[in-house]
User: What shape does this take?
Amino acid sequence: MRFITMMGTAALSMTAATLAQSTTINEIRTGSGNAEYIELKGTPGASMAGLTIVVLGDGTTTGTATKTGVVEWIYRFAATDVIGSNGYLLLHNPGANPNYATNAVPPVPGPDPATGAFPFTIDPAATNIPWGYQTATGSAGDTQLESPDNMTFLLVSNFTGTDTFQTRAPNSGADGQDLDTNDDGTLDITPWTAILDSVAFKETNGAVPAAGQDWWYSLNTCGPYASRYIQTSGAPIALWTIPSAATGTLTTGTYVYGPADQGANLTGSNLRGVHASATSVYSSPAGLAPTAPFALSSNGWALNDYYEVTASTLGFAGVTLQWDQYRSSTGPSTFRVDMSIDGGATFTTVLDTYTLASASWTGGSKIIASIPNAGNKASVMFRFIDTMATGASGGTNRIDNILIRSDANQDTVMTSYAGPTMGIKQANGTWFIGVASTTVGQQDTPGSLNYAAPIYTCGDPLAGDCAVAHGNAFCADACCCAYVGGLDPFCTTVRWDSICVTEAAGCAANCTALPCPADLNGDHIVNGADLGIMLGDWGGSERDLNGDAIVNGADLGLLLGAWGNCP
Assistant: This one.
């Protein structure tokens, strides 16, 4: 990324010192309709006169095409706007318009397609500015911020651009002024006196955008969000990518989707869903990339309902099963996998109860490696069985990318990147990728002190179970964490994902229950940290090493005798 050219250096002069220079962009949430907001922080009572929020993104690919540096969204503050008495100003989506009407002639009244009110409670001491509708009968959706994408948010003074709109540019943000006229990442037009603050939301990893993506224009960045999946080079036996939508009778207890679309043993393969209720409805919503567009989904779930795949594994030794699964907020959340090699007469559980996150593919990518007795069989059947009591009748669960394969070759870990939909500035000035769930969460603090992202290390009790994927790096077992981190630094630098969980299966063989008694903090080495822990319990009993129920000189001698790396 380039400092001078990308920031529009002329606009970085300090001439705005008298224009509320202390006012900064502090928190941004995009992409969830009525829940969008931009939070500013500054000196209580500071005037916003002459200040404008400008969002730069992509333009249009039709007519005179421009793909980057286009003004997508603007908000000009009124001369009367000030920072709230608590030091915050919240600019936010107004929520559904009660006066909405369609663009028909004559207009037809609501309801607004952008449903719902702004869902957050705002501190009354913060300045509260709903950014309004573009017309008296317009939709809140017409004013939305784009997400996710490479986007740059600027707080500027004395904006003199040619655009006259307020909030989103016409034609879904495509008709704003082009400030990077040759799309090279340098702002050729800087219609402002100064940039007071800026941040770029990135969905591209690295210093330059990927092919077909737009540039960003700030050194302060948030993102991209990195995620990983397993790409196998083993021979596919049967793979259902759900390339076409479900057809036929879709309201039924048992629905047969049909054979696999890829693999060596397509003949006789089959995917179906089985529900106790004859009124269950099967459908084909969006699947998970890279094999989208469809998944197989159904509602009306009850205990022991299931999806089932069947295929021959003749000619293949060593079988692995992997798949992606998603549930709605009211859909079944716990399943297990059973296998039959005798046509369904008897079953063996090959994966005990697993849990799916609500309304997310995250954590729903599963793999069972090297399944015993599954190779070289005329028919192998796997059932993904609902293990929870009957939930809401409208709750859905979908499955996609079901792969039965041989273990002939190694798997490859692939990393993909996405733009964040929420960013939170931290006390040190860096930006943290927030979780912009449609459910209000602890990270959403519009109009008040920002959420502080925890800082974990290996062995931190709050870092998360090593056997369960979670959103932060590290896990609570110090030895297991260090072992996995040595194999896979992603787990201790980015996130403890499902791949880390798989790798943690080796912890049992590499981390004994008591690597050495004097290792009091579990980091597999006896050193000053352990000495400090012992001295902190001097005269107590919790750190007693010799079993006499008191921490004293005898225990200190044992600790010093074990000084160094544990065996």
